[in-house]
Design goal:
Layout (H helix, E strand, L loop, with lengths): L16 H4 L2 H15 L3 E5 L4 E5 L4 H7 L2 H16 L7 E4 L5 E9 L2 E13 L7 H4 L7 H9 L3 E2 L1 H90 L8 H31 L8 E3 L1 H19 L2 E6 L6 E3 L1 H17 L6 E11 L19 E10 L6 H4 L23 H11 L3 E7 L3 E9 L7
Parallel strand pairs: 5-6, 8-10
Antiparallel strand pairs: 1-2, 1-5, 3-4, 4-5, 7-9, 10-11, 11-13, 12-13
Helix pairs in contact: 2-7, 3-6, 7-8, 8-12, 9-10, 10-12
Amino acid sequence: MSDPNTADLHHGEIANLEDLIDRESLREVCRSFFDLFGLSIRVFSARGSLLANVHEERSLCRYVNSLGEGRIACAAIVEEVQGIVPEATTVVHPCFSGAVYHVVPIIYDDRRLGRIVIGPFIPSDVKAPPEAMLQIDPKVDPGRARAALLEMPRVRPATAERIAAHLRGVLDLILFSGHRAHLTSAMHLATVRENYRELAERNARLQEAYDKLKELDRLKSNFLATVSHELRTPLTSIIGYSEMLQTGIAGDLSEEQAGFVETIRTKGELLLSLITSLLDLNKLERGQLNIELEMVDPRAILAEVRETYHPEAERKGIRLEVYCGDDTPYMQADPVRLRQILINLAGNAIKFTPSGGRVDLEAMAVETSFHDEELDDGFGAALMMAPEPAIEFRVRDNGIGIAEDQAERIFDAFYQVDGGSTREFGGAGLGLSIAKNLVEAHHGAIHIESELGHGTTFIVTIPQAPPDPD
């Protein structure tokens, strides 16, 4: 017989009767048996806990307990009965009064979980109080003892066995139902425990990977900052000396020499622009780039951008136009950074627009609600936000366009639409990433509308005035 104390809970094995059975249901079952047969029923767990107790004190018991010696003897019998632990079969324990107790083992899944005590009751063949009853106390009245004995429930041994077997069968059904629920719960807990362990391990691995990436990002930022600063000084000298050579400060240059110097200067300026972009991106990622707000005229900003790119647009045969209504209001922005945003977008548009195309720069006053995901409560709170005045800039071209599967990645640093070893267009892939970060630093938003082969429009929306800090 298995010991309930060694049950393996992880495999749904049973440890205690209390874990499987509903006490209220057990009391109802015992009550129904009492109502049918008039027999007192008590159910104990293997640990001795009384789980159900349905009985009615009979006249014989009351009479015995009214006698001094009888009360002591009755208590001793009850203690003996409670101490009985049947192995596999019912144990019949007699009482000095002529009554008997049946102690029935509760066995489930080869485990002894408890016992049922039925009685006391009088066997059907007992007709009169036994001699032990009459001698239990000097004050025993034989007539009264006999009358009390006759009022006790009388049961044949075979009937008592059938009652015990039936009660055990009902308990088996209750235990089976409880075991099934217990097993389901144990399996669920085991699954949850395993999932939690796996999740904890994954979280640990993710945290380790995150820490490594964070350290790598820090090292990358420090490397970029150090290398960029170290490169700018000699590069500035190279550009400066090439410009002096072009002015003839070291003597006249031949046409071929002048071409070489011009190449040195233009490539140097291109490299300096790349280094500046790297420094800006590094500062943006580390939150170290300050935004200096002042009143800015969108028309003037667009005019400066057009003036910057007008020579290049003419060389490529691209028409570069500015559209900005006279009623477009001033806005609060960092003019240097706003100009950088639009220059990056315009340069990108010109780069991907073929000869004979056009690039339009537009600005207009709009009202919009800026969707802050951190403020979205999931119930449409963003839709209920009051619109606020903003300035919308559009940089539109009719160039090669961008495929839909690439549209979401073009703002990633170093991403190239025409990546690969045979790239047609130059650039380091930093302009759009820097533009996006600068727009967000102004609490604005940027998105793209494009159709492959028909052109692209970048739409930048920036609040007319920055939000009040909370």
